[in-house]
Amino acid sequence: MTSVIDKMCQQTAGWLSGEGVDSDIVISSRTRLARNLQNISFVDRATEDEHRESLSKVLNAVQDNEFLNDGFYFDISILDDLDRQFFLERRLISTDFIEKDNPRGFFVTPNEETSIMINEEDHFRIQKLCSGFNLEETWHYVHQVYEELSRDLTFAFSERFGYLTACPTNVGTGVRFSVFIHLPVLTFTKEIEKVFAEMIPTGIAVRGFYGEGSKVIGNFFQISNQFTLGWTEQGILDRVIPFIKRFVSLERDARDRVMNDDRIIIEDKIYRALGILANVRILSSIEFLDLLSALRLGADLDMVNNINRKSFNELIVFTQPAHIQKIEGRKLTERERDTIRARLVREKLHFN
Amino acid sequence: MTSVIDKMCQQTAGWLSGEGVDSDIVISSRTRLARNLQNISFVDRATEDEHRESLSKVLNAVQDNEFLNDGFYFDISILDDLDRQFFLERRLISTDFIEKDNPRGFFVTPNEETSIMINEEDHFRIQKLCSGFNLEETWHYVHQVYEELSRDLTFAFSERFGYLTACPTNVGTGVRFSVFIHLPVLTFTKEIEKVFAEMIPTGIAVRGFYGEGSKVIGNFFQISNQFTLGWTEQGILDRVIPFIKRFVSLERDARDRVMNDDRIIIEDKIYRALGILANVRILSSIEFLDLLSALRLGADLDMVNNINRKSFNELIVFTQPAHIQKIEGRKLTERERDTIRARLVREKLHFN
Q: How far apart are CA B59 and CA B101, in angstroms?
């Protein structure tokens, strides 16, 4: 497996291409679908045999699936800590998935846009990511993959509730639509707090950089539906999409407004970030994301040139701790990582 | 007077030339001598007539003095707030001097190395500044000027105590020797706190950027004698000079040590400062001095090129609030000053 991981380490996932609708603000779109097999206990209550049964059934169906015929399967139990962290940073698996010890694994396509975790919280979860704002595309793709899987598998289903999942918030369709979105000016003006407060009763949630329970870093947010019970997939989509559109439009308005009213403050933030990133020698990943946020805004506002959107997106992933260590080929202390990160950033942004 | 002030505004005082012994660490050396006239009440207790008498007697003697034949006299009462602040920033007068309202003024030579405040706390105070570490030169010069003044003036003197001054700490010789010194690495390693603590019983005092009661900014300190009673001028000098030498040597040792042990941390500080100063759009005077301190250290350590010591010294003075406003020719808001300061710094450091 090492050579596959090493190869992944060199490449950029398709969903980081910086292409697609509104990709200045919406980094990526994601659909996740959760399902459990009929007549096998849910992961948290399953016996070792049941774990093996669900794993083998799902994996067989996945490897049979015409949409997934060139992917790789990773057995999590044989990956070391660094590789587990690496896949987490690639957003292919969850923290939960890393920490459990039941038989489990995940499948990923070469462009990393599609991945399937087997025996995480549910028997499996399909994830499809794409660059920019295009939730419908990700949903249609997941739906196709799922339809194909349904030929081989039968799912836990209740006439009353719909598809059954480990966590009640997923019962019904088992889908979650989310976007990874960059809202630097709404954050700067603090308007974002007001919009987030308004969202609480709508069932649309905002999370930090690494999803559930994580902090906001670099003005990057994950916005997703919290409701599914009683809704169709299209019904959820039709409700989520206008929310994201509203965020995009509020962010654009806020950018126009600050560029008229507080241009010098925004310029100061952007040029300072540029100056620091071009010269820094010790750089934590959190500080980096904060500075990257300013620099990316600078590019969006035509103040910073020669750095394309793909480079920004790549850096979000490549500067994370496990990536730095994979690139160097060994475990590193925090100081070593921060030093290498600083050098890597200067190189990638062509400052050297 | 406006044209003289405007001209001063364009020029750099001689003591900022960046020349002289140890001028990488010791920005400037200063001797100040305080005297009061016999048979005229001290400033705090004097009548209006007495104020005029001391002012006129001292000013006549100054203008008669062969060492001071090409200077300018400024009547403080006719200067506006901005000009008063300007002279304070030039270190030619004191905060006390600005705030009082008795008849008073000051005399300054064209290179600004010599100045005489009349009717501040004492009837007069002679100040001589020079670039680098050369307290003896400043003392010998002050002594010459003083000897010449003594021909025209008689001073308040006590057989028991020596020369009498308004503040008991100056009684005796009325001299204070001080240096303006840059100790970035001793500050960084926190060794400075230990050295300062050891100094307390010795009668040598450390003060901040603007002298008595002021904060430490940009790792610049003023070190001076607090004792004079019972000592000769040479005796004080012989005690102060080794202290300053010790600071210089401790700072040099600390620089060598961190360049061996923590080079990357020092590089990071220096290059960040460079990056920010080259790109900043809003810059307060305090942040500037902190960044300048790092950049100056970078130049001392051969990491930063193309900026000479004189430019650093000039910027310490020219970026202060009244200077920014004099250069622009009008009162400015804080935001305006911070914006102009940022532009000025980028220009002066040839970053634009």
A: 18
d(CA B162, CA A270): 61
Of B276, B335, B339, the CB nearest to A275: B276
**pLDDT of A209 over the 80 cut:** no
Task: Say how many C-beta atoms besides its own lie within 10 A of residue B290's C-beta.
Answer: 18
Residue A19 buriedness (CB in 10 A; 0-12 / 13-18 / 19+) = middle
Residue A282, min C-alpha distance to chain B (Å): 6
Tell me, which fold does domain B2-253 have in CATH? Answer: Creatine Kinase; Chain A, domain 2 (3.30.590)
User: pLDDT tens digits for B35-80?
Assistant: 999 999 999 999 999 999 999 999 999 999 999 988 999 999 999 9
CA distance A4 to A302: 38
Pairing between strand B26-35 and B124-131? antiparallel
CA atoms within 13 A of residue B222's CA, in its CB half-sphere: 20
Residue B4: predicted pLDDT: 86
Q: Which tokens belong to B91?
A: 């270190």
Nearest C-alpha in A relative to B351? A275
Strand partners, B163: B157, B172
Q: Do A271 and B280 touch (CB under 8 A)?
A: yes
What pLDDT is recorded for position A2? 66
- DSSP classification of residue A352: -
pLDDT less than 70: residues of chain B: 1-2, 210-214, 351-352
Compute the radius of gyration of chain B from its Cα atoms: 21
Edge to edge, the sheet with strand B204-207 lists B72-75, B105-108, B114-118, B124-131, B26-35, B175-182, B220-225, B204-207
Nearest-CA neighbor of B163 among B71, B229, B256, B223? B229
Q: Single out the residue of B55, B57, B93, B100 nearest to residue B77, CA to CA.
A: B100
Q: Which residues of B touch A264 (CB under 8 A)?
A: 281-282, 335, 339
Q: Model-level pTM?
A: 0.90
Domain ranges of chain A: 2-253, 263-348
